[in-house]
Write a structure and sequence with these properties.
Blueprint (H helix, E strand, L loop, with lengths): L7 E6 L1 E2 L3 E3 L7 E6 L6 E6 L6 E2 L1 H4 L7 H6 L4 E2 L10 E2 L5 E7 L6 E12 L2 E14 L2
Antiparallel strand pairs: 1-11, 2-4, 3-11, 4-5, 6-9, 7-8, 9-10, 10-11
Bound molecules: zinc ion (ZN).
C-alpha cells in the first residue's frame, strides 16, 4: 500500500468480490479481494480504518496525479453535494474519501483503490470501495 505521486493513466477496472463493508466487517480490517485484469490472480488487500489510505485530494490537487474530470469520467468519485463539502469536492458516497496504490502479487501490474469511509448515520459505519483500477504511469 503506497501513495502515488506521478501522473497516471487509468486503465481497466478489476473485478471486486465485495465493495461495501459495514460495522463489524471493518473491525479490525476489511479484507478486499480483487482479480488482476492481466493475469487473473486473486489479490487480497487489508484496509485498516484510520490507518490505510491517503486523502483523494492528493490525486486531483493541481492535476498532480489525475485531473478531476478523469476521476469523474471513470466514475471513481462523484461530485460532493453542497451540504457535505467538508469531506472534499469529490467523494465516494458522500463520505471522507481515501485512496492507495497497490500491485498484483504475481505480475506486478499497478492498481489504485479508492474508498469512502465514515459514519453514514448514527450506528452505521460504512467502508465503500468505488473500485480498483489498473493504472500506468505517464512518462
Ligand atoms: Zn496480475
Amino acid at each position: 500500500m503506497y501513495s502515488i505521486s506521478e501522473k497516471i493513466r487509468i486503465s481497466k477496472k478489476a473485478l471486486l468480490e465485495k465493495s461495501v463493508f459495514l460495522n463489524n466487517e471493518i473491525i479490525p480490517a476489511a479484507t478486499v479481494k480483487f482479480i488482476c485484469c492481466d493475469c487473473s490472480h486473486e489479490n487480497r488487500v487489508e484496509i485498516i480504518p484510520h490507518q490505510s489510505g491517503f486523502p483523494i485530494l492528493q490525486i486531483y490537487n493541481e492535476d498532480k496525479v489525475l485531473p478531476k474530470n478523469e476521476l469523474l469520467k471513470h466514475e471513481i468519485v462523484t461530485t460532493t453535494s453542497p451540504g457535505m463539502l467538508h469531506f472534499g469536492e469529490l467523494t465516494v458516497n458522500q463520505l471522507p474519501t481515501l485512496y492507495f496504490g497497490t500491485h498484483c502479487k504475481t505480475c506486478y501490474s499497478k492498481y489504485i483503490c479508492v474508498f469512502g469511509y465514515g459514519e453514514k448515520q448514527p450506528g452505521m459505519t460504512i467502508l465503500q470501495i468505488s473500485g480498483i483500477w489498473k493504472y500506468e504511469e505517464i512518462q
